[in-house]
Each structure stands twice: as C-alpha cells, then as structure tokens.
Amino acid sequence: MSKDSYYRAMRSKQSARFEDFYGELEAEAQAEGAAAIRDLRAKEFKYALINTLVTRRRDLKLTQENLAARSGVAQTEISRIERGRKSPTMDTFSRLASALAIDFWPAADIRSRAAAAAKAPPTRASNVRVAKRPAERSRASSV
C-alpha cells in the first residue's frame, strides 16, 4: 500500500468515525430537547468560525506568531482558540479576522451599501418628508 493510499484510507475511516460520532451527538441532542439542540448549533457555529480562522491562516502560510504580530492577540491565546480550549471574544475574533483579511457579511454588506449610496443620484428635497417635533406641530396648528 502506498503512502498516499494509506493516508486516503485513514482519512476515510476517520471521516466515517467522525460522522458516526457526530450522528450520536445529534441523536443525544434530539433526545434531550430544544435546549440541547440549541447548544449543539451554537457549538457548530463557534467551531465553523474558528475553522475559518485556522484555514485562512494556513492558506496565507502564516504562523501563529505572525498572526499575533499582525493582530495584537497573543500567540498563546491564538493557540488556545485554535485548539478549542478558549472561546474568543467578539473583539478578539474581529482582530484575528481583520488581520487575516476575512470579510464577514455584515461588514461587507455595510461597505457595499455605502459604496452604492455614494454612486446614487442625490435625493430631491420634494421626495423627502421630515417629521416635525411635537413642539413645532403645536405651533403650526395654532398659527
């Protein structure tokens, strides 16, 4: 058996084992009820985000030390996050994502809306209706 075929076989066995394990987790959560399912989905989301960070760091061929220098997050903290030993705060996650040039939809959506607004023709004043403050309404009605 060649080295490549050995690794392919091991990966497929690991994959099948993980799928079995995850199926068991899913079944347990279903049996425990809505709260357990919610917790499982939250963990899925958390680990998907962490996987995105790790994958991007590796794609950029950065070490944890390089990422620490770029992001201002300690290398030891990055290591704990990547191993699932620590949950990053939103601030830490944002710093890491920014250092890795990862665009998540809210920021990308805000930038695209701002760019579209800058290109849009100016709004005519006749199309804009400004609500009057209560004091202005009472003065206008008493005149």
Characterise this structure.
The protein has seven helices and no strands. With 143 residues, the chain is mainly alpha-helical. Helix 3 crosses helix 4. It is extended and about 50 Å long.
Looking at the structure, what is the overall shape?
Answer: extended
Cα radius of gyration in angstroms: 26 Å
Instruction: Report the total helices.
Output: 7
Classification by helices and strands: mainly alpha
Enumerate the spans where pLDDT stays under 50 for 5 or more consecutive residues: 122-140
Fraction of residues in helices? over 70%
* End-to-end C-alpha gap: 96 Å
* Total E-strand runs: 0
Order of helices and strands: HHHHHHH
Q: What portion of the residues fall into strands of 2 or more residues?
A: under 5%
Q: Main sheet, how many strands, which sense, barrel?
A: none
Average pLDDT level:
77
Topology:
Elements: H1 3-32, H2 34-59, H3 64-71, H4 75-82, H5 90-99, H6 105-119, H7 134-142
Tags for this entry?
mainly alpha, 74% helix
